[in-house]
Amino acid sequence: MSSVLYRIGRFCARRRWWVVAVWLVLAVGGGAAAGALGNHLQSSFDIPGTQAQTALDALEQRFPQLSGASGRIVVVAPEGATIAGDADAIATACEGVAAVAEVTAVGCPYPMSASGSTPAGAGAPAQISADGRMVFLSVQLSVAAEDVPGTLVDAIDQATSPLSDAGLQVAVSGITAAASSGVDWTEIVGMAVAFLVLAVTFGSLLAAGMPLITAAIGVGVATSSITIVAAFAPVQATAPVLATMLGLAVGIDYALLITSRHRDNLRQGMAVAESVAVAIATAGTAVVFAGLTVMIALLGLAVAGIPFLTVMGLGAAAAVLCALAVAVTLLPAILTLCGRRLIPKPPRRKRTPKAAVPDARRPGPAWVRIATRAPLATAAIVVVALLALAVPAAGMRLTLPDAGYDPAGSPARVAYDLLNEGFGPGFNGPLLITADISRTLDVEQALDALDGEFGSVEGVAATSQAFPNEALDLAVLTITPTSAPSSAETGDLVQRLRDLAPAFESAHGFGFQVTGQTALAIDISDRLGAALLPFALVVVGLCLLLLMIMFRSIAVPVTATFGYLLTVGAALGVSTAVFEWGWAADLLGVGKVGPVISFMPILVMAVLFGLAMDYHVFLVSRMRERYAATGDARVSVREGFSASARVVTAAALIMFSVFFSFVPGGSAIIQPIALALAVGVLIDAFVVRMTLVPALMTLLGDRAWWLPRGLARVLPDADIEGEAVQRMLAQRRWRDDDADRRAGLHARDAVVGDSRAASFTVPDRGVLLVRGDRADDLCAALAGRSADIGGDVAVRGHVLPFERAAVASATAYVGAVPPPADAESVGDYLGGMLRLNGVPRRDLAARTHLAAGVFDALVDAMGASGVPTGETGPDTPVARLDESGRWALAAAVALASGLPLVVADLRGRAAPVVATVLGRLDPSATAVFAVDDAVQPLTDRSIVSVRADATAHERSRS
């Protein structure tokens, strides 16, 4: 991965203006497209497969009058007065509201004349509060809640304005114009704090601005993309806010890590473009891995099987993907444009005593010294403290938001609170009973059965009369609970009602279903609660696998997973204490004390998984690097901590500031998510990764880096610290140390697989003879056909294995066994293969003639085994050639192609064949031949011999 990222970094540095232009087009074009399409985000929640959703879907099809949005208009008399004196004005307002085009029915507390689609009515006394001070008007609309136009809201406000003018308080609930596509810009505060942290970390305002610019562009592209998608598919309104929150946090953090590494490279004297490429290859590898873990965790939300949650996960993952793409493409371009102005300023005073201390002997920061001085005690204290913080999470209650979660003072929230005060807590969360009466012959009897079934059930405050649809095949009635919508008592009531259904169906021949927004919220909460354990298993299993691949260790993934679970528990515990217990609720500006949004726990688990892995990668990868260099586990913990603590601290403070900026003044839906993430980031970075993990790593010592040998062979090498790129740069320095290494073949301690090291120097037009049981492997590697080669190797100026594509394109290679030939005749084969080897059409005829002559010479040298002697020609069928004949064809193509390097496996070939190959070799070509020990060819070319033998260990295994 690091090699690929190095090439990406180099490309973006060289084409910096093009890269910047492309991203600006994406950002501006996406914003323009989103604005033109308008806002189509949905504020409703649904969940297929639940009883509540199934009943609502049936209601929409068979009772369309009730399928649109519904609302209430609350009218309250001044303190000390009753509402009865304003009955006429209220009736007039009812008629005015009923006359609005999108209103299908109005329920008025007082007698009213027919208006719009609403017939005349005698009034509903149940809509008058017990103290006579408050009434409400029930309004049924023909449009869905998310499609309510602003003109409808204005028309209802105009119809009720005489009531406000008369001194009555009016509040509307459930009738709100579709929200604008913009997001709450409270994150500006978080970005300001992030800028201060970056300025202190970098000591440069220019460097501090880079992460903010790139993160803002990534978030702009992501949110506009979500808005565009919402025009064609259902997208929940919370998705852009969540994407903004995550996109800013990870975008700033990823840019911080890469920019920090780039400035370190500049300090060491690297050229700007090379420094950018190396930073992308090293820090960028950790960034890519961290970003992928966040995205995989977010995509894992699909485990819950809830469409709106899956879409939210996709939107958030898209924001992280944009942040990742910006970090590895746009950021290198901008860093290159800044040039050497990002070089850190040297400190004003040098502390010679400390500088004189060798790096391996420095004690490290005080924090890590304290954490590792008594590692067992440190680990025990941290675990006990975090478990204590997690205790409140055991009693966490979940719900879906209703008007009670709207901002305090908003019309919907005012109406919600007034209805709760005047009519009881259950009035804001009615339950709907739907019954399929299509198989009932006596509709009146069926309605009477429904009317008499629920009044005596515990927890029911009141029931309406059942009424059928026009087709007389579906009946509906409303139940008002005695408890609040989000209370546990209402959940118990829903279950009690559903438990009555089997007996009711047995007695009356038809059943019923419990639905409505309150029942739907309960079903979604139950589904999400049931999904927590499977999701946790997926996330934990993924954590173990990914970290095992990254660090090639058993202990590192286990400690990372253990710390992650502690972080999640503590974050959810703190959020529960604040939002359900009310601790510090006023201080934090909590909009609603009560159950939290249903998808909060699973969403927090997904996001914190990715962020926790970020910090673990940043911190432990440096420990691994130092352990590889020193072999001292205890020293590697201190030195790795010292090398990464500053970046991790800055990253954690930035993420905390971004997340926490969504808490004060934020919506009641986002607030608990933002607080849990903010607290989780602080706990994970400073308590788990920078305290618990160093203590555990010190306790484990060398065992922290142990991996079973069999597992080590199976797991891929992630190369998170860019070791491959560092090796490539070292090889390039070795090549450039001697100008002669720009031509010919050169190797220093080259190994293929587990072979013995081999060193050689072959000039241009020379011949390298390779002997030994690994000769074929070394030849394949020198031809660019295999990446399994170590040591320092340069082939015609290209270092292997990193530039093997360039080597392979300039090399003609013939293995011991020729590939199967698809051509029908020898002539077709020679011409086709020469074209594949890059021979231009103008030279094709001459080269084909040359190849034919080489083929005939090789056939003669081999004794014509399996070849029709005297009959070979362009029309000879390839199918008539045996394996030796086909090998001769492949060798003829290689020798006639005119490529500067020819590599062939000549083992098992007779001396005349070897002599023929050498004799037919292009005078300007360099050659590598695998030969038997007995072969000693004679030629005027410079010949170098080398052995490629397996180690004694490999021989004993074979």
From TrEMBL:
TM helices/strands, residue ranges: 188-208, 215-235, 241-259, 271-304, 316-339, 376-395, 528-550, 562-584, 596-620, 641-663, 669-688
Gene Ontology CC terms, in alphabetical order: plasma membrane
Entry keyword annotation includes Nucleotide-binding: no
Membrane topology: Multi-pass membrane protein
Domain Membrane transport protein MMPL, first and last residues per copy: 45-373, 473-735
One Pfam family it belongs to: MMPL
Record's subcellular location: Cell membrane
InterPro entries: MMPL_dom (IPR004869), Mycobact_MmpL (IPR050545)
Keyword match Membrane: yes
Keyword tags: Cell membrane, Membrane, Transmembrane, Transmembrane helix
Main location: membrane
Protein's recorded name: MMPL family transporter
Source species of the chain: Microbacterium limosum
